[in-house]
Design goal:
The relative contact order is 0.21. Helices cover about 35% and strands about 20% of the residues. By secondary structure, it is an alpha/beta fold. A five-stranded parallel beta sheet has the order 2-1-3-6-7, with helices on both faces.
């Protein structure tokens, strides 16, 4: 992959083991430092409060709990994030309607492009 996100610290919140491992692999292959993946809301909340990160990838549904409290913390810390979900745009709460969203399934290049836009890294850097 031509894209490089070398050194970008990305918080990954995903409860599906296989998707979490895929996200981890996709991000590390571009040079990201991956924080997580975290499958539980409580752990994600703690990380969102304490960890230093440049961006985040958030699954909306974590075993029946919604990730919006994590998104709220990240927003308050000015940490950009992208939702990865099977939910349609219309299912998002109004305050997150304009938030970047990748529908599952997605391709690695879509994820990398979304993160590049979040942290303003030119494609092909």
């Amino acid at each position: 992959m031509a894209q490089s996100l070398e050194g970008i610290r990305v918080l990954v919140v995903e409860d599906d083991y296989l998707i979490a491992q895929l996200l981890d692999e996709m991000l590390r292959s571009t040079g990201c430092v991956v924080l997580g993946p975290l499958p539980r809301l409580a752990d994600a909340l703690d990380a969102a409060k304490r960890e230093t990160c440049d961006a985040a990838v958030l699954d909306i549904n974590l075993g029946g709990e919604q990730v919006y409290p994590v998104a709220e913390i990240l927003s308050g810390r000015n940490v950009p994030f992208v939702f990865v979900t099977g939910y349609a745009d219309e299912a998002l709460p109004r305050e997150y309607a304009g938030q970047p969203r990748l529908g599952k399934p997605f391709k690695a290049q879509q994820l990398i492009r979304a993160l590049s836009n979040l942290v303003e890294v030119p494609i092909g850097r």
